[in-house]
From TrEMBL, chain A:
The chain crosses the membrane at residues 16-37, 44-60, 66-85, 97-122, 142-162, 183-213, 225-253, 274-296. It is a multi-pass membrane protein. GO terms for biological process: amino acid transport. InterPro entries: ABC_transp_permease, BCAA_transport_permease. It comes from the Bacteria. It comes from Phyllobacterium myrsinacearum. Keywords: Amino-acid transport, Cell membrane, Membrane, Transmembrane, Transmembrane helix, Transport. The lineage of its organism: Bacteria, Pseudomonadati, Pseudomonadota, Alphaproteobacteria, Hyphomicrobiales. This is Branched-chain amino acid ABC transporter permease.
From TrEMBL, chain B:
This is ABC transporter substrate-binding protein. GO terms for biological process: amino acid transport. InterPro entries: BCAA_transport, Leu-bd, Peripla_BP_I. Residues 1-21 form the signal peptide. Pfam families: Peripla_BP_6. The keyword Plastid does not apply. It comes from Phyllobacterium myrsinacearum.
Length: 306, 378
């Protein structure tokens, strides 16, 4: 096994983790501030991808599409918060799960109604096409490096927003004690809408960035949503720092597991069996890691209010 | 949605058929919602095109959406057989749904005609006289590509597929005919959309070619990422990964890729020319192989209906088995296990008038029969 391959796989893990972070950051903020389990977060990811693909196809510019994805997902998030989620703050988590699950169905079939059943085409922008050379002789896709960069910029931006601004202060206060900041005269309703729209915009951004790599189709958000939940549980629900650490951990563990486990099994099994068994264990690996972390730290790595 | 669609179809198809004494009732269970809906919609559209073209007023089609869920498909099948009393069931896209529905349905004496799924379990020892597969046995297209890899003189192919029965069947099918060595064999997660890990391994393996079976969105994602990775190793796949339903989403990255299929839009026969033109006129898009399988299935039923009453099961079964219809595949016949014996071609993805599509470049098999027919006692 060459070092070039190892470096490439490490970058793959990092890129996957950064993408998961964009999803998990919004999810964990929404849960932290409002106490809402938002299953429809994956639909907002899909909205971002479709908005980007549609605008990019119409205007020919990926960048305009990217802007459209942020706007569309944030708008969809704000509308969902005002019309549905707002009524659920004082309800049981089960009611929230039911309502946001219904939203998944509405978003999926609504998207199919507008865009049809066939996957849309979204290509990587011209300047980010192709691959660049890595030290050690390997090559790496430029666009994936750009995703890593974009994700890290978002992480820094979120940190500054939450640690340094008035809005961030209110978000932190909201996480600690909702009733108290309401009593102190902060407009909780609009704070909630802003947080929800922010989380939605991050999901939409992730959808648009990933849409250019994968396929833009109905139902693309749900598999990512499950992983995002794993990430926030590992990281500690409500913690942005935890979401970043959890996302990169999940990304690297999943990528390395898929890469190394079949090779490990091949040392003592038939190649064909090793491939099947290795793939099966690799797909369980992140859940095993999650179980282990929860056994040691039941509230996650960076628990809020621990 | 599905109820509206079904009601609209019923309304459209029954207005002229009410006066008929004994209509033939066909139940179609297919995937019209969720990620796999494109396939089911094509099957339905191809099927209904043939029924409408025939002008046969005795035929009534009921369409329902299975949402790609086996338990839902079983419920719909029960309802269609027990209360709707359909004579023929058809339409299922996915092998796992077919496995859940078909044995029960044919066991009750209802005919089932497969428009896509061809699991090996239904082709061998568990074959059934009431089960007809008008599409292919699952292994066939992969076998054809394995055979083609020998012709193309590939010696070191890297193969990958999702880790589920149709995925393992696919790679088994490929290996059944491929004579070279394997550069690697990978099983990925079902529904996986990021293939960076696998692509890195392909690059490191020194393979001279890649064969993959990744249906639907998985294949789109793989091809887009592969083309951007800087690897120039040629790719091969089954027709499913390069058909009309997904080519638009893959984009120009697909141009030049060789893939296997039992049908292509440029097959030179009168039935096919008429079909492609009619499909384009009706639906404003090019037909996929799924639409074609729906179209052929409907024409097979029409040919049998013309010869025998569907109530006379033995006569109708014999009429189906004869398969005397103008298949758009040019020639078509059933083997002993009611699975097709047909030619399988190698196609290349090209751009034609700004639209990505396929053209035939070689014939991999002539009159090819599946590997399980021998263990079927019919």
């Amino acid at each position: 096994m060459s070092s070039a391959l190892l470096i490439e796989q490490a970058l793959n893990g990092l890129q996957f983790g950064v993408m998961l972070f964009l999803m998990a950051a919004g999810l964990t903020l929404i849960f932290g501030v409002m106490g809402v389990i938002n299953l429809a977060h994956g639909s907002l990811y899909m909205v971002g991808a479709f908005a980007c693909a549609a605008v990019a196809a119409y205007t020919g510019s990926f960048w305009l599409g990217l802007v459209a994805s942020l706007i569309a997902a944030a708008a969809a998030g704000a509308i969902v918060e005002i019309t549905v989620i707002r009524r659920l703050y004082n309800r049981d988590h089960l009611d929230q799960v039911l309502a946001t699950f219904a939203l998944i169905l509405i978003f999926s079939e609504g998207t199919r109604w507008v865009f049809g059943s066939f996957p849309l085409y979204l290509d990587i922008p011209k300047v980010l096409q192709g691959a660049i050379s890595l030290p050690g002789g390997g090559q790496y896709q430029l666009y994936r490096l750009a995703i890593i960069g974009a994700g890290l910029i978002v992480a820094i931006g979120l940190y500054l927003l939450i640690a340094k601004t008035r809005l961030g202060m209110r978000i932190r206060a909201g996480e600690s004690d909702r009733e108290m900041i309401g009593a102190l005269g902060v407009d909780i309703a609009s704070l909630n809408t802003i947080v929800f729209a922010l989380g939605a915009a991050l999901a939409g951004l992730a959808g648009a960035l990933v849409g250019a790599l994968q396929s833009v189709q109905v139902g693309m958000g749900e598999p990512v949503l499950i992983l995002a939940f794993v990430v926030i549980v590992i990281g500690g629900i409500g913690s942005i720092k935890g979401a970043l650490a959890g996302a990169i951990l999940v990304g690297v563990v999943d990528t390395m597991g898929r890469f190394l486990l079949p090779q490990l099994f091949a040392l003592f099994m038939q190649p064909s069996q090793a491939a099947t068994a290795g793939a099966a264990i690799a797909s369980m690996l992140i859940y095993i890691v999650m179980a282990f972390i929860l056994a040691v730290r039941p509230k996650g790595l960076f628990a809020v209010n621990a | 949605m599905k109820r509206i669609a079904a009601a609209a179809l019923m309304a459209g198809l029954t207005f002229a058929g009410q006066a008929m004494a004994e209509p033939v009732k066909i139940g179609m269970i297919t995937t019209l919602s969720g990620g796999g809906a494109g396939l089911g919609i094509d099957i339905r559209d191809g099927f209904l095109l043939a029924i409408n073209e025939s002008g046969n007023k005795d035929i009534k089609v009921i369409v329902e959406d299975d949402a790609q869920k086996p338990e839902l498909a079983v419920q719909i099948a029960d309802k269609m057989v027990q209360s709707e009393k359909v004579d023929i069931l058809t339409g299922i896209v996915w092998s796992n749904l077919a496995m859940a529905v078909v044995p029960g349905v044919v066991g009750q004496g209802t005919f089932y005609l497969s428009t896509n799924a061809g699991p090996s379990a239904l082709a061998g020892a568990n074959c059934n006289p009431n089960y007809f597969n008008v599409a292919y046995q699952n292994d066939n297209l992969h076998e054809a590509m394995g055979n083609y890899a020998n012709t193309a003189n590939y010696k070191k192919t890297f193969i990958l597929a999702p880790n589920y029965p149709a995925g393992t069947d696919a790679l088994t099918g490929f290996k059944r005919f491929y004579k070279g060595a394997l550069a690697g064999e990978l099983y990925t997660k079902v529904g996986q959309t990021d293939y960076a890990t696998e692509i890195a391994q392909i690059r490191a393996s020194g393979a001279d070619s890649v064969y993959f079976f990744l249906p639907g969105g998985m294949g789109i994602a793989f091809m887009k990422q592969y083309s951007q990775s800087g690897i120039s190793t040629p790719v091969m796949g089954p027709g499913f990964s390069f058909d009309q339903d997904v080519l638009g989403a893959i984009g120009d990255a697909a141009i030049g890729v060789k893939n296997s299929s039992h049908w292509s839009k440029d097959l030179d026969n009168a039935a096919n020319k008429k079909y492609v033109a009619a499909f384009k006129a009706e639906y404003k898009r090019l037909p996929s192989l799924y639409a074609t399988q729906g179209y052929d299935t409907a024409n097979l039923i029409l040919s049998a209906v013309a010869k025998a009453s569907v109530k006379d099961k033995d006569a109708f079964r014999a009429a189906l088995k004869e398969a005397k219809f103008d298949s758009v595949r040019g020639k078509f016949k059933f083997g002993n296990n009611n699975h097709p014996i047909q030619d399988i071609y190698v196609r290349e993805v090209i751009k034609e008038d700004g639209v990505l599509t396929n053209k035939i470049v070689a014939t991999s098999f002539t009159d090819h029969q599946d590997a399980y027919a021998a263990s079927c006692k019919m």
